[in-house]
């Protein structure tokens, strides 16, 4: 094998969905230090903006422009990456939506949409890239939520999807243990993101970013799972606001 081929084979890769804002963006920025990061997002413009921000950092980035709820778009975005990189070291599921509604006011369409984006799309993308993850002995990290453990008024939609995501990752972890793929579920409390601002608007509360977890702290939790030595598997990480600020 040539020196160039050896160098290319040693490059670690990471696909991050929802990488254009919030937690996903922080995760992409962190992993870009030592991974070729596939920047996932629905908007090509937003994806290219993040790629420009990361220009010159680490081994580079690639675009992954797709609506995760569209199997066709996801497959089209994945095809050239699979061709260029036969292995995938890290898959981070950070794309998600968080509509709020009392059960009495939530039509079927709201339930279908949130489960499609937050659960079914996670399962389908994971299924698509599992051969490359298995080849690399890779990691799947699902950014879940504290709402994956408890539910509050108007939170049945979001918590329901996050409970389901926790079940998905628990099952996947056991299924893939023999294939060398590790699976981690990260459960943040409230994080200072656009989604948190929107939630505060819904609740009619003042949003103060300094009261909540910085996205970089969730990226650190993802990094903990990814960098764990192969004798260990970081299965569940919960990160809560300290209340000390």
UniProtKB/TrEMBL annotation:
Span of the signal peptide: none
InterPro entries (alphabetical): KR_dom, NAD(P)-bd_dom_sf, Sc_DH/Rdtase_CS, SDR_fam
Protein's name according to its UniProt entry: Short chain dehydrogenase
A Pfam short name: adh_short
Keyword Nucleus: no
Molecular functions per Gene Ontology: oxidoreductase activity
Domain Ketoreductase per the UniProt entry, residue ranges: 12-194
Keywords from the UniProt entry: Oxidoreductase
Domain of life: Bacteria
Organism field: Kocuria varians
Family: Belongs to the short-chain dehydrogenases/reductases (SDR) family.
Keyword hit for Oxidoreductase: yes
GO cellular component terms listed in the entry, alphabetical order: membrane
